[in-house]
Backbone:
């Protein structure tokens, strides 16, 4: 749940019994990176019981080290960079438990965020996530 308390802050529920208040420029980092980590932590007990568990984080090309620049929205790019780092660390940590962890970029998708000029349909944006979800984890 996300609620806008004022023009200077946003509150969102992490899935636990606590609200965290952050400034708007930090919202991207909290949602894109810390939100994904929190959801993963909450689902780990169930994932550990699954025969072919997978975690698929939706990242962005803006989250690559070689694409960071002044022309990239800073909070968004840094949040996706943090998500990519967390994905690498989670993949390394959870591999021994048989849990596969991936990050993927849907590309520039025609959504509310991507706009009508984006080059990919929502179906095309989802194709890699669907492929990773069905990939043999071995």
Residues:
């Amino acid at each position: 749940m996300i609620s806008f308390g004022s023009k200077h802050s946003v509150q969102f529920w992490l899935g636990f019994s606590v609200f965290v208040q952050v400034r708007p420029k930090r919202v991207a980092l909290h949602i894109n990176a810390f939100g994904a980590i929190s959801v993963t932590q909450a689902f780990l007990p169930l994932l550990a019981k699954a025969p072919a568990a997978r975690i698929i984080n939706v990242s962005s090309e803006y989250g690559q080290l070689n694409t960071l620049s002044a022309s990239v929205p800073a909070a968004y790019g840094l949040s996706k960079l943090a998500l990519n780092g967390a994905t690498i660390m989670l993949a390394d940590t959870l591999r021994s438990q048989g849990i596969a962890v991936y990050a993927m970029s849907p590309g520039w998708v025609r959504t509310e965020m991507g706009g009508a000029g984006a080059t990919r349909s929502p179906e095309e944006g989802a194709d890699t996530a669907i492929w990773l979800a069905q990939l043999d984890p071995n």
Observations:
- The CA atoms of residues 56 and 102 lie 5 Å apart.
- The mean pLDDT is 83.
